[in-house]
Design goal:
Largest sheet: none
Distance between the termini: 103 Å
Structural class: mainly alpha
Strand content: under 5%
Order of helices and strands: HHH
Length: 177
């Protein structure tokens, strides 16, 4: 954007310089022509005629100068309008690019955020699944231990008369009495 503005300013400066040079040259040429005509009139006619003609020429010169300034002003205004339109178009382009970049960045951020949320959900689900499996294994182990304990736990002696020592020896040997 700065480059476009700099180009526009440089172009405007060049146009103004050309207009100033052309106006100076036209003024110099016009002054020279008026001076030469004035000398010719002085030599050719009397003082009153010369004065009247001089006044007419000055008036005509002022009119031409005014017309020239109007034309120059109009041309400068048109050039300024063209430059302003170019600058406005460049600004709109830059704003459009900024909006596109912002939209793209926002979409990327939303995608990353959705991906992170999905990853967190997957990790949470995996952790929950692992915990549930561990709890199920623990319950199975506890059930197996209860079952084993229930089968190997002390049972009152159901046989005949034996001594306590005989019972303990049988238990140590893994036999049931």
């Amino acid at each position: 954007m700065r480059r476009t503005e700099a180009n526009a300013l440089a172009l405007s400066d060049r146009i103004e310089a050309k207009h100033a040079a052309a106006a100076a040259e036209a003024a110099r040429v016009g002054a020279e022509e008026r001076r030469l005509k004035f000398k010719q009139m002085q030599l050719a006619a009397g003082e009153a005629v010369v004065e009247e003609k001089r006044f007419r020429e000055l008036r005509d010169g002022k009119r031409r100068d005014c017309e020239h300034r109007q034309v120059s002003s109009l041309q400068q205004a048109q050039a300024d309008d063209v430059n302003a339109a170019k600058l406005a178009a460049a600004r709109r382009r830059v704003i459009g690019l900024h909006q596109q970049q912002h939209t793209t960045l926002q979409r990327q951020y939303d995608k990353q955020l959705a991906s992170a949320a999905q990853q967190a959900t997957l990790e949470s689900t995996a952790l929950l699944s692992t915990k549930q499996k561990a709890a199920a294994r623990r319950r199975q182990q506890e059930d197996a231990q209860r079952t084993q304990h229930a089968t190997s736990a002390y049972r009152p002696f159901s046989g005949g008369h034996t001594t306590m020592q005989a019972r303990l020896q049988a238990l140590a040997a893994g036999q049931e009495l």
